[in-house]
Each structure stands twice: as structure tokens, then as C-alpha cells.
Design goal:
The protein has 108 residues and is mainly β. It is globular and about 45 Å long.
Length: 108
């Protein structure tokens, strides 16, 4: 769940997302990438975690350094006691576009 409007981040900003399971904040690995980063399937530009030991419970921060379409993916292993499964993996993907901002105009 984005903690701010996904259309607002500009280059140099950090976007925060909160990971919830059954209404509660959970520890999870969060991976993000952007269009054109790699042609390899499942290649991610950055990886971070949420949880009490990493700051605000359930919140992950993703740095925005490239304009274009971006996706943030969370995969959470959840116990499933109601089925014949030991574990089920739940995925959530947030996709949004990062507009060109003031940092884009700079010449490095």
C-alpha cells in the first residue's frame, strides 16, 4: 500500500510503501525496478526489507533515481492451515510512473 500518491514522487525522492497482511503490518522483502533496468526476467534494481528491526514496522523505502514506469513487488510467505499446503506465497505489485523532475535536468 503506498503511503503517498504514487504519481507524486520525482527524481531524488523516496517512495514509501506499507506491507499489510490481514490488516496488520508485516515483515517482508520488497523489491523494486523500473522499465529498461534489465532485459532479464525477475531482475530488480533494488531490494529492501520491512519489519521492526528495519525502522517503521511494515514500511519500506524505495529510492527514485530514474524516470519512467516503476514497479514495487512484495512476496510474503503465509502459513495456510486451512488447506493441504505448508506455505503459500502471496504477491502484491504496485506499478506507477515517475515523472521527470528537477534532478533530470542536471548534467552529470
Amino acid at each position: 500500500m503506498p503511503l503517498s500518491n504514487p504519481a507524486d514522487p520525482k527524481l531524488g525522492d523516496e517512495a514509501q510503501v506499507k506491507v499489510l497482511y490481514k490488516g496488520a503490518s508485516v515483515a517482508a522483502e520488497v523489491r523494486a525496478t523500473f522499465a529498461g533496468f534489465s532485459e532479464t526476467t525477475m531482475a530488480f534494481a533494488c531490494s529492501t526489507k520491512t519489519g521492526y528491526e528495519f525502522g517503521t514496522p511494515g514500511v519500506a523505502t524505495v529510492k527514485i533515481w530514474q524516470p519512467g514506469y516503476r514497479s514495487v513487488r512484495v512476496a510474503l510467505e503465509a502459513e495456510d492451515r486451512d488447506a493441504d499446503l505448508d506455505t503459500r506465497v502471496l504477491w502484491a505489485i504496485l506499478a506507477f510512473e515517475v515523472k521527470k523532475g528537477p534532478l533530470y535536468a542536471r548534467r552529470w
